[in-house]
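TL;DR need structure tokens for one chain.
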Amino acid sequence: MKRNSRPPRRNAGPREFSGPSSAESYSPTSAALSLEEKFIVAALKRCGGEGVPSRSLQRESGIRDKDAFYGALHHLEEAGEVLVDKDHWVKLAPPVKEIEATLVSISERFGFAKPTKMGEDIFIPGRDLNGAFVGDTVILCGLQKRDRGPSGRVKRIVQRGENKITGTVHIDEHGARVTPDGPIRYDLEVPQSLLGGAKDRDKALIEPRQDGRGDWRQAAVKMVFGCGDRARVCADAIIERCGIPTEFPPEVLAQAEEISRMTVTEADIQSRLDLRDEPIFTIDSADAKDLDDAVSAHKTVDGYTLGVHIADVSHYVKAGTPMDLEAFRRGTSVYFADRVIPMLPEALSNGVCSLNAGTEKLTFSALMDFDQQGNMTGYRFEKTVIDSKVRGVYSEVNAILAGTAGQELMDKYAPVMESLRTAKELADILAANGKGRGQMDLTSDEIKFVLDEDGVCVDILPRTQGASEEMIEQLMVAANCAAAKASLDARIPFLYRVHEHPSPDRVVELCGLLERLGVSCKELTKGNPQAKDFAAVLDRVKGTGKESVVNQRILRTMDKARYDHRELGHFGLALAEYSHFTSPIRRYPDTSIHRILSDLVKGVDPEAIGRRYRTFAEESAAESSKTEVRAVTGERDAEDCYTAEYMRQHLGEHHVGVINGVTPKGVFVKLSNNAEGFVSLQDFEDCDFEYDGEIMHRDLRSGRVLMMGQELPIIVAAADVATGRIDFMPVEG
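>> reply
TL;DR here they are.
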């Protein structure tokens, strides 16, 4: 079995804190302001503390773009950085004395808390935690800004966290303890009476407990998943820890069964645009069952027409029904190496909503016109009925496009061959346009896992993208842009896929690192660099040993993409408007967008749409962003375990990898299959390394350098499935 997966994460420890230094008052947002926001704050400081009219403030700030100015001002107001009265006078908010935060990690001597609104994590000495634990909502006071970041102390606990905590049980002659997963960085003792039948190396759900002094030192085992040496067992624990729903409530399953019996009626056909005779086809992986998008393309006198036909989930999943509420709670389908946890029951995702070939299906179509240069000249959205002519497979279409397909494949795709080749021609133009506007081409570190019949990982392969995958990606991006344009033109509430401009501080930090790596980054040193400037740097290192490192560092510099009810643009794609319209079977934001656009297509007045969906759009965007983070966290943690399970079968093997990260205690090395392991400095013989604090170690005795981007021969030394940690040893001599 093969499953495409997201890239593994490095198992990084908590940040260290180097004692007191000169303190200053702390603003929770100061480290996270955009360039425009910093201009506004600086202008307010110049104007004094009495306040200034917003129009005058725009002139003083030097921000010419009105939308950019008011967007930044609104963001500052939401964050509590500025105050805006009813007459639109603006002034700086007074210094923060107390803030609400969530404790996100804890060690034996300190913890870190994340402010509820925004800002960098706050360091809390162990003596000042006052009984708070990971997941607790707390009020922090005594806030100070120090050289290594802000610090504070817990004044009170507002609400105890409800996080589920898992870990690995260890039993020896000294007793039992559990090593928690995630943000708890020390072992907890487990009294014999609280072991719950767990054995050594078992993965378990635990309940931390306080000792007599109020310290969190003990735990009770609440559930045993099985041996932590199996990645499948670890995935079970990760799903539980992340709170990913796996069982559908009975009322949802009953509704799914009822919906699954629905057929396409004559009334459905009469009320929709009939596209059953169009050369429409799907392309997916060979084992995919939830086929939610199909395409068709034609050449015209002026250029091209493109149809992107999406399963009409909103026809079946009505607002406020048990099915809808459960989909909102799940937010997204979650993909593991051995299973898929779907957003919708399989009766829908793999059945009535799946666009299976040779079957009449209800769809929501984005119909777009392009000129010969690939500029979108028009679009419309229609409720449609289709009959896909071919169930395409990526590998088969890649063979056709490469000219290596046999006659059997050519015969299979004959009904849609002209449509397919036209779609490829248009996609190539769209891809070139994306490159021209500066779209970033970040190399993927994703892994495909191959499991045996027992669910054990027996191979890992770097994920590759062929011509057909790239084609479908371009066509889906076009439909997503059209959906965003439709909402903006109609001025209706919507959900957008946003990716904001990276903060200036992060860009400065990136430039310093690139310069030390010997990578020219002159484009980034100018004010307000754009996506094309980052793309130029990526092109510069493409095909070199530094490509992976630079890709990774640029990714870290970027804000994470998320959903928002405001259109803030997509920096990575270099697009002013973007949304997610094309996967309503597996993403709730797409389902939300379909619901809103359905009313627009029906002719509902935009003002009425605004009243109906404004709050819904805000809530759906916020919750969908949270459930996406939950899913990605679970997927990546599980991928680490599967990667370790595979590498454990290859202990003692020699490989050559690339140094992908540097820490005070060693280096991370990535292999060609994207597995990553840690090499400790202690394993280098007769060396006395000095760390430069960023990209390299230098041996003071021999002058040897270990630097990011450099190749390093290694031996696979250890792999711990339960934690996903892999250790390498250097090959000396």
